[in-house]
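Example complex used in Figure S2.
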Amino acid sequence: MTSLLLQVENLTIGFPRAEPVRNLSFEVRAGETLAIVGESGSGKSLTALALMQLLPRAAAVISGRIIFDDRDLLGLDAREMRHLRGRDIAMIFQEPMTSLNPVMSIGRQIGEVLKAHEKLSGRAARERAIELLKLVRIPAAEKRVDDYPHQLSGGMRQRVMIAMAVACRPKLLIADEPTTALDVTIQAQVLDLLDTLRRELQMAVVLITHDLGVVAQWADRVVVMYAGRKVEQALPGELFNDPLHPYTRGLLSASPRLKHDFHYLEGPLTEISGSIVSAAGEVGCPFRPRCCQARASCGHQVPPLIAQTPDRLVACPFTSSLKAVPDAAHLSL
Amino acid sequence: MPVLIRIARTLRRTLLQAVPTILGIVVLNFFLLQLAPGDAADVLAGEAGSATQESVAALRARFGLDSPVLEQLATYLGNLAQFSLGFSPRYGMPVADLIAQRLPGTLTLMAVALLIAILLGIVLGSLMANFAGRIPDRVLSVFSLLFYSIPSFWIGLMLIVLFSIKLGWLPSGGAGTIGSQLKGLPALFDTARYMVLPATSLALFYVAIYARLTRAAMLEVKSQDFVRTAYAKGLTPFGVTARHILRNALIPITTMAGMHIGGMLGGAVVVETVYSWPGLGRLAFEAVMGRDFTVLLGILLLSSLLVIIANAAVDLVHAWLDPRIGAR
Ligand SMILES: Nc1ncnc2c1ncn2[C@@H]1O[C@H](COP(=O)(O)OP(=O)(O)OP(=O)(O)O)[C@@H](O)[C@H]1O
Ligand SMILES: [Mg+2]
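Predicted assembly (661 residues):
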């Protein structure tokens, strides 16, 4: 078994009025791709920002531990954390259009992260930036290195972001919906690139997405989040063949690309009724208001995670009865 | 190289626009000044006290003040075409010489004031943005509001009262110690001493503007995604502020600074009068009082030239600061 690189234990993130991430635990093994899926607002980005210790000012980690490489990140001071950022843990953001500084050439922006962590002259940093641009398959890298972000397409900008993120060969790369803003063909290219780099540079990737197609193709393990909590954890194969949590089942039946020999013209796509907002401030299972299997006992407490195998967790006590009627969940959703 | 091309393109566009602008300014001002009652001959005659109808008429004839307005304009433009600004009846010397005497004084005063205003404004604005909503921000906001609303002549007078009269640290007027034989560094230091108060009075209003502008611009830039990217790289807060936030925030500030150069010339009239600083502002004031319109036109022409040059400089700075501009 490969070693643990990152261990998040009972992480709770709070704003003054809300706790968008609650009691979240997961771990990342060296070199693997862990996908975190969940609909908009389920707390994926906040979790990622907490790992980087870059939460917005109003937000704070209320409790929990984030163990990276045997150190609790929450116990580090600002300086120690700065040394980790960009060098050991790097992050790619959701919006390639606005995540690059518009008035600085991409070569300089890549060089900057190198200079921050390694003693490099301006010329050496530039050379490395060109190498990195080649690494992320940007054509004519020698010319492109002096370009400004507005001269690049969205896909190219995301490649530049990736080049910047992998510049110091991080052990962990957090990619927060790296392809949401890109069109489908570019999406696949960028994700393939990420996967190749992961293998070449032996880094672990936390891939945040709400696209189950992405999970199926690129993830080693999956964590499904709902309303700031982990509701299911599985290997992709298990998840798609045998989803346990009613929310996961709903997600799957709402994804057109995953149903074999299913075309959206042949039948309706199901949706999960209700919205995530309606789950706020409830006691009991957060998914209860939208769950077709809900029963009275679901309102008493948040269902604990039940381990079916060490890698298979689900936060619903009624999964065996659900399994008896395989398609029940999304038929009635 | 693309930087140079961008800059060259900006420069050419500016030059093409400058010529018609200046011509328009001259013609418009010429007619505007004709509306003022009286002319140089009247004032000269009034000051002499013993003028007769004939001597005034003779004066007018000598300086061409009796010919029709359009003819006067044609003469003036004709002079301009030969790079001559005409002759001042009042000072009895070519306007160009007169202006050349006074220009350096005003230019240094303005340059120093602008430099103080921009540097101090950016530093204070950065502080305010950094402590937004907290005590330092509040205190500085009050001060900037004060300096924004107090007229510069009053600030000038108060500075004189405090630093020249009460404390005796700095001279209250003039541009250098009279009759001093200083050379080199001591001479520069002497001039600097005389410069401090006028430059400060001229600058304070603009310090207030730039501080507020910097604060607003930095707060806006701070919330943008690329700033988060910069932090994610492991840069220090200072590095992020200096290289990412400030650089983007400077763009609106340079625009304003360019627009303020014209206004500063106006402010210089007041400040130069308060501190008896020998500059263009005071010359303009004297020219108005003496109805010496050739001098005034010369000064106006030069000011507009100055503003155009300043704007071109701002365009250049912009082309350098913001790569997106040259793309157009
Ligand atoms: N500045 C903030 N103040 C208050 N609440 C916030 C703030 N930022 C985020 N939240 C809340 O935190 C929750 C989680 O947000 P987060 O950005 O982590 O969602 P996400 O899973 O990344 O969604 P998406 O797929 O849209 O990116 C949301 O419900 C949101 O309302
Ligand atoms: Mg997000």
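Chain B has two domains: 2-94, 102-289. The CA atoms of residues 29 and 282 of chain B lie 19 Å apart.
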